[in-house]
């Protein structure tokens, strides 16, 4: 592979924003990719993947490059040189790479890789927490899986098409996909591609959604005509799935504390041809109290650490703080307490997170079941999805049923 100067500059600019200006990697990359209209899909892939790679391996690369935060541009070029050397890419004779000790880089990589926190590039405190919660063996495997690049998975919008038709449509545009056993609406891309520019996307035939995430609405067991509350709907990944399982019949109330997220959901719903969603910004407890004992199904897709989706958001490990995780555990129990009251007798509740930590998952559910609100419910089943076992995102989901 030959390195192109303008693409490498884009990567260094992106890393500056992510590491030094505390911006989110996905937003930075989205912006970077708009920089030059002449870039083809390979160029865009290079910018996105190289930036993500260096974010993912920040701690290891900084250690090998012998640089410390805050990184100046020279530091970032040194980390870039580590990335390129470890990938086996020949460094061009640009001034940024002068005197790069290629052999030493490889030797240091072998040496430092003996330590898990360096090999997997993870802050000590997250590593300690992972070992304490999952045990050393599982955590070690999970961390390695979370550092791999995630596949691109689509969820067919069955309101508009079928999985088979969508596969053919994409094939005609040179995008090859395969079915995934056990995931009824999923298509996996055999090679990365920018699916957002396709007609099929613009027409709302699919959404990009990981296979594990697709299991959540399935577990909720919705039927056409039901009243369903999606309490932490965000931009609506799961709301849209629920709507398609309900064949657009019945009512979904999609709630979130952020109006900006629900606005995105509105746009996506329109594209998806979804007509049965009412949006409610949670700025008081009124809309919740109004729905007490009314919903056939309630989904709590709770805010969480995101430690199951590091493959997609590698910068999260550098942005997370122990206090945030403590606070979010409090929110998780709080939303379980409050939102469970909307389930009607005989109705069902799914609690889900994209975390792999038991303290955000089964422990929350067990604690809830012991409280006054929880005694109304029976535990039906749960799924603990780990990336190293499933090949998809780390997720947790539990199904509870309100006693009749
Ligand atoms: C895991 S995300 C939801 C993802 C979304 N369900 C999807 O499938 O795309 C959690 C959401 O909970 C929202 N949230 C945080 N605290 C909340 C609260 N107390 N009540 C309702 N929503 C809350 C966040 O704004 C965020 O959008």
TrEMBL record:
Transmembrane segments: none annotated. The keyword RNA-binding applies. PROSITE patterns: SAM_MT_RSMB_NOP (PS51686). CDD domains: AdoMet_MTases (cd02440). Residues 142-403 form the SAM-dependent MTase RsmB/NOP-type domain. InterPro entries: MeTrfase_RsmB-F_NOP2_cat, MeTrfase_RsmB-F_NOP2_dom, RCMT, RsmB-like_ferredoxin, SAM-dependent_MTases_sf. Keywords: Methyltransferase, RNA-binding, S-adenosyl-L-methionine, Transferase. One of its GO terms (molecular function) is RNA binding. S-adenosyl-L-methionine binds at residues 256, 283, 301. GO terms for biological process: RNA methylation. The keyword Metal-binding does not apply. Pfam families: Methyltr_RsmB-F, RsmF-B_ferredox. Belongs to the class I-like SAM-binding methyltransferase superfamily. RsmB/NOP family. PANTHER family: NOP2 YEAST -RELATED NOL1/NOP2/FMU SUN DOMAIN-CONTAINING, RIBOSOMAL RNA SMALL SUBUNIT METHYLTRANSFERASE B-RELATED. This is Methyltransferase domain-containing protein. It comes from Seonamhaeicola maritimus.
